[in-house]
Design a protein that fits this description.
Elements: H1 9-16, H2 25-38, H3 45-97, H4 103-126, H5 132-157
């Protein structure tokens, strides 16, 4: 077995061996950076950059138009639902004042009876029962969820 003797001055000699023929990584990187700084950009670089910026602006405008259209569609749908609910409420109450059920009143009554029957069968199938205690428990759970989420928002806003 050979016995190696190593001195701290030998590290400098080992690292300086890379200086030959630009093999030193630092000098290689410096040379590449110098060359890239001396290279000029192409003549149409500024025009291409301007085109890309204009395209981005057009895309932003189209996105804004799309969001506005989505807002108008959703607002129109919600308004139509509110309008239909109000009109149906007026028609049903008008029929009840006259104490005679018209065609629309009988259709609404049969539809609401059908939905009530389906919901009762579904609840029985799941084995759930609704009592005043169940409703109170559900309300308490919702209150606790709201209180904890509100408290978390208040705590997370504090800066320490």
């Amino acid at each position: 077995m050979k016995n190696f003797s190593f001195k701290i001055t030998d590290i400098y000699a080992i690292l300086n061996q890379m200086n030959n023929d630009k093999k030193n990584i630092d000098s290689y990187l410096e040379d590449k950076i110098k060359q890239s700084l001396m290279n000029s950009t192409s003549e149409d670089f500024s025009s291409e950059l301007a085109k890309r910026i204009n395209l981005e602006k057009e895309f932003v405008k189209e996105d804004i138009k799309t969001f506005k259209l989505a807002k108008y569609i959703s607002a129109g749908f919600i308004s139509a639902m509110i309008f239909i609910s109000v009109v149906l409420g007026i028609i049903i109450t008008a029929n009840q004042k006259d104490n005679e059920t018209g065609l629309l009143g009988s259709i609404v009554d049969s539809f609401s009876g059908f939905i009530e029957l389906i919901s009762i069968k579904f609840i029985d199938m799941l084995g759930l029962s609704f009592s005043p205690q169940t409703i109170i428990i559900l309300i308490l759970i919702m209150i606790f969820i709201f209180a904890f989420s509100f408290a978390e928002k208040l705590i997370s806003r504090k800066t320490f």
